[in-house]
Write a structure and sequence with these properties.
This protein is an alpha/beta fold. The chain is built from 15 helices and twelve strands. It has a single domain, classed as Aldolase class I (TIM Barrel). Helix 14 packs across helix 15. Bound molecules: ligand FNR.
Length: about 375
């Protein structure tokens, strides 16, 4: 059930599959006889030096994959010198995260229905020195994730016969849960003063998240938050223009890994038009990134950086902290090789080193 929670997506999972398939139509341009003996993947995001154009994006309920999963990810990100975005749906509190997090502290916000509580929340986030805030905007309503419904993946866990058998077949995982306790939405619980409960994870979120928050309300958020403001879940050139107009510093081109609107296009096919409309806004992208070559393609198409969702979570679920580190190591190595073989010595030199497959134009995908 935990694998399905991570791996699954909304509806028929068409968008999740398209996120992967679309990469086939972006082709990198190899370059030869260029001196690439010295090269670097370093770049800057929101004025911060980072080791690679890579961010570990926000994912909720990380404690279900590994005991204190959020802390494992935060420690690896701190050592690797890349940002980690703590989720509003984290299973550890901000105080625990404070000890594990490094210099690059980003936070993902789900806009709460109660503005007073939201103001309080923003103050707390700032007090723990998170300086980049990603407001997730593609979750006005929760996606229908059939695998979670089928598995009875609920909060708190319901010990159905099927789930007991599932746990018994995964003894290491079951022991971890026994040691660390069944994960809860700790950030929510700290804020609301009680355990958040509901029939599915998206139901829990729905009870608290505002479905009415709209473009005109971003002004309010802009006034409450002094740090960098990023909108996560934008896809179209109009979104890019509106984001600039409301004073956002950046955007994450994202379809939530196909977990929200099944039937939406892939993000990599949306990227070129989005980049053009975004002008000097920082443009990050996620959804479907699994290899360093995928990352190189996004950089070639103009993204400033790539956010990871499942790629690092699979590592976390397989082996905890070393698993996350290994996932990053593989991605970093593949990215370095890809840019070198494209004749690029820096992230900047990688720009434009792509062609779109002749058989399918990206916009016709
Ligand atoms: C997510 N995502 C997500 N996004 C967000 O803003 N807040 C959250 O709490 C979560 N939770 C979450 C849990 C799990 C298990 C997954 C897989 C994803 C979405 C995430 O940030 C990102 O947009 C997608 O994961 C990107 O797609 P890939 O890389 O997983 O294909």
């Amino acid at each position: 059930m935990v694998f399905d929670y991570i791996d699954g997506a909304a509806g028929e999972e068409l968008t999740a599959r398209r996120n992967r398939a679309a990469f086939q139509h972006v082709l990198l341009k190899p370059e030869v006889l260029v001196d690439v003996s010295t090269r670097s993947s370093r770049t800057r995001l929101f004025g911060q030096d980072v080791a690679m154009p890579l961010v570990i994006g926000p994912t909720g309920l990380n404690g279900a994959a590994w005991g204190h999963g959020d802390l494992c990810i935060a420690r690896v990100a701190a050592r690797a010198n890349i940002p980690f975005v703590m989720s509003t749906a984290a299973t550890v509190g901000m105080r625990e995260m404070d000890a594990a997090a490094g210099r690059l502290r980003w936070f993902q916000l789900y806009m709460l229905k109660d503005r007073g509580l939201a103001t309080e929340f923003l103050k707390q986030i700032a007090s723990y020195r998170f300086d980049v805030l990603q407001l997730t905007v593609d979750t006005a309503v929760g996606g229908r994730r059939n695998r979670d419904i089928r598995n009875g993946f609920t909060l708190p866990f319901r010990w159905t016969m099927a789930n007991l058998v599932d746990a018994a077949r995964h003894a290491r995982w079951a022991l971890q849960m026994a040691r660390h306790g069944v994960p809860t939405l700790k950030v929510f619980a700290d804020l609301l003063g009680g355990a958040a409960q509901g029939s599915t994870i998206s139901d829990v979120m729905q009870q608290q998240i505002s479905a009415s928050f709209s473009w005109s309300d971003i002004q309010w958020l802009r006034e409450q938050w002094d740090g960098k403001l990023v909108l996560k879940g934008l896809t179209t050139p109009t979104h890019a223009r509106l984001a600039r107009e409301v004073g956002a510093d950046g955007a994450v081109v994202s379809n939530h890994g196909g977990r929200q609107l099944d039937g939406a296009g892939s993000t990599i096919e949306m990227l070129p038009a989005f980049r053009e409309s975004a002008h000097d806004m920082t443009v990050l992208i996620d959804s479907g990134f699994r290899t360093g070559v995928d990352i190189a393609k996004a950089i070639a198409l103009g993204a400033d950086g790539v956010q990871l969702g499942r790629a690092t979570l699979y590592g976390l679920a397989a082996k905890g902290e070393p698993g996350v580190a290994r996932a990053l190591e593989i991605l970093g190595h593949e990215f370095d090789l890809a840019i070198a073989l494209c004749g690029a010595r820096t992230v900047e030199e990688m720009r434009g080193r792509y062609t779109i497959s002749e058989s399918r134009h990206l916009s016709e995908l």
